[in-house]
Amino acid sequence: xxxxxxxxxxxxxxxxxxxxxxxxxxxxxxxxxxxxxxxxxxxxxxxxxxxxxxxxxxxxxxxxxxxxxxxxxxxxxxxxxxxxxxxxxxxxxxxxxxxxxxxxxxxxxxxxxxxxxxxxxxxxxxxxxxxxxxxxxxxxxxxxxxxxxxxxxxxxxx
Length: 158
What we know:
By secondary structure, this protein is mainly alpha-helical. It has one domain (about 10-125). About 85% of the residues lie in helices and about 0% in strands. It contains 5 helices and no strands. It has helices at about 10-20, 25-30, 35-50, 55-75, 75-155. It is rod-shaped, with a radius of gyration of 33 Å.
């Protein structure tokens, strides 16, 4: 029996080994652009990194408390509500939201790495299956050759 199947690895398998798991940092690093664009990204990342901490949120709470007595002493509901909405919520929630986004990005990177590892394991399993199938094809080929030989022997009897 002739071998009818030969395993050829898909080009994406080698590509995934070369690139590794996708992450948020790799996506940011892959962004092309001019020197100004790269500088702007670095500045933006630096500000986001420094503002996106709970320590920054605590500092912002203290800053907002400076204007709280003036808002309360006005006795006007619109001033108090304005202080809550425009001063406290906006200033304090900014770093808290960034902290949450950083946690979500880290979780996304972890999921990506796990999916990448799972895909690698599945690829190796598929290679093992191909090897197993090749050995079964060889065994079936031997059985077919024997069957054909027996059929010829039976057909040749008078």
